[in-house]
Amino acid sequence: ATSVGSGTSAISTPDVAGGLARITTAANENDGLFAQTIGEIFLLESGKKTWMKTRISVGDAIQSDWVVGLHSTDTTPQDATMRFLFESVDGSAAVYFNNDDNTTDTDSSTIATMADDTFVTLAIYYNGVDNIQCFADDVLIDTVTGITVPGAEMAVGFGYLNGAAGAETADIDYIFVAKER
């Protein structure tokens, strides 16, 4: 957690049917919080199909940085050496999928455009070879081809930083990751 402004960046679980994780930031630009599993518990494998899906809402769609997905353990997952995640960067409401195998960093085209305090469902399907299909609200938006997925275990993680002064929130309804065995 980063809490330079007034208040403390924290995560909570408000009373909501089905539950969710709510990040509330302190009130300075780049205040926020990243959370990840204790260990790197998920390995993408060649020949094994993988699905990932999440539902997220952010308080300020343009003035925020956020990630949801898989990444090598890091206190700043946007800079992790390996990434397989959804991301949006400060100054833009565009959401894209990022695949970084520690050699080649590949982004999809924009798969969604966030709106303040509005949930969007994001999903990918990895064919187990070299193709990732990207979905927003259950509609196929982009297909990324010729990729190599990260070859080591990664943590499941999410996080949000506000992009301007003032406390903000982000709600993560769920993160689903499944792979063929």
Question: Short summary of the structure?
Answer:
This protein is an all-beta fold.
- Biggest sheet architecture: 7 strands, antiparallel
> Unreliable runs, pLDDT <50, ≥5 residues?
none
The fraction of residues assigned to DSSP E strands is over 45%
Rg of Cα set: 16 Å
Average residue pLDDT = 95
Query: Treating each run of at least 4 consecutive H or I residues as one helix, how many helices?
Result: 0
Task: Describe this structure as you would to a colleague.
This protein has strands spanning 10-12, 21-24, 32-36, 50-58, 64-71, 83-88, 94-100, 105-107, 112-113, 120-126, 131-136, 139-145, 155-162, 169-179. The chain has 181 residues and is mainly beta. A hairpin with a 5-residue loop joins β6 and β7 (94-100).
List the helices and strands and how they pair.
Layout: E1 10-12, E2 21-24, E3 32-36, E4 50-58, E5 64-71, E6 83-88, E7 94-100, E8 105-107, E9 112-113, E10 120-126, E11 131-136, E12 139-145, E13 155-162, E14 169-179
Antiparallel strand pairs: 1-2, 2-14, 3-13, 4-10, 4-14, 5-6, 5-13, 6-7, 7-8, 7-9, 10-11, 11-12
Give short descriptive properties of this protein:
single chain; 181 residues; mainly beta; 7-stranded antiparallel beta sheet; 0% helix; globular
